[in-house]
Design brief:
With 195 residues, the chain is an all-beta fold. It contains no helices and 26 strands. The strands form five sheets. Strands 1-4-7-10-13-16-19-21-22 form a nine-stranded mixed sheet, with no helix packed on it. A seven-stranded parallel sheet has the order 2-5-8-11-14-17-20, with no helix packed on it. It is globular and about 60 Å long. It starts with a strand and ends with a strand.
């Protein structure tokens, strides 16, 4: 069963997965695909053709512009913006108002388990790695590796985080999650799970 609040605007051409909830004043555009058990908060915008995996949370007033692709379990905080225009202009060089045919949208890709903090901006085209965390207010202009915690303007890696979202602690050659006990190993600025 899908819940759509009475004041939400959901295109009949969108695909909404079972158990998903779309709250007041949210807009879900044509050909958007939401997985199962997703939540789209008040006033959020999901653009034409956006793809979302299962168990995603899009918080209030977030703007997810097409052609963004979100993996499973992605968290998008309040007022986050995922952009889609590398060279934005309202008019052409001749002074004419640009139309949808005057530009090619580029998207943000966010992999499974990643979180984007409140009011962060991801400037397309960028990729956010698995279980990465973008701090509130950050401006992401470069790809973010798996398990990275990035912050600032422009965003830079400041720590590593595990699947619980908690900063990892150094233990010899490994990094350890203080919440789950999971272990990770860093090599050449890449963090991988120790199996």
């Amino acid at each position: 069963m899908v819940f759509v609040a009475p004041q939400a605007d959901v295109s009949p051409d969108a695909t909404i997965g079972a158990g998903s909830k779309i709250w007041h004043l949210a807009q879900v555009r044509e050909n958007a695909v939401l997985g199962t058990d997703c939540i789209v908060g008040r006033g959020a915008y999901i653009g034409t053709g956006v793809r979302m995996g299962d168990n995603c949370k899009i918080q209030n007033y977030a703007l997810v512009y097409e052609p963004a692709v979100l993996g499973d379990g992605v968290f998008i905080g309040p007022a986050v913006v995922l952009t889609n225009d590398t060279y934005p202009r309202a008019i052409t060089p001749d002074g004419e108002l640009k139309s949808a045919h005057d530009w090619t949208p580029v998207g943000v890709t966010i992999h499974d388990g990643a979180s984007i903090g409140a009011r962060a901006v991801c400037v397309a085209p960028v990729t956010i790695g698995r279980w990465a965390t973008v701090a509130a207010g950050a401006v992401v202009t470069k790809d973010v590796p798996d398990f990275a915690l990035v912050a600032g303007v422009p965003a830079r890696r400041i720590r590593w985080v595990g699947k619980a979202g908690v900063p990892l602690e150094r233990d010899g050659d490994d990094w350890v999650c203080p919440t789950t006990g999971e272990r990770y190993r860093e090599q050449d600025d890449v963090l991988r799970e120790v199996v």
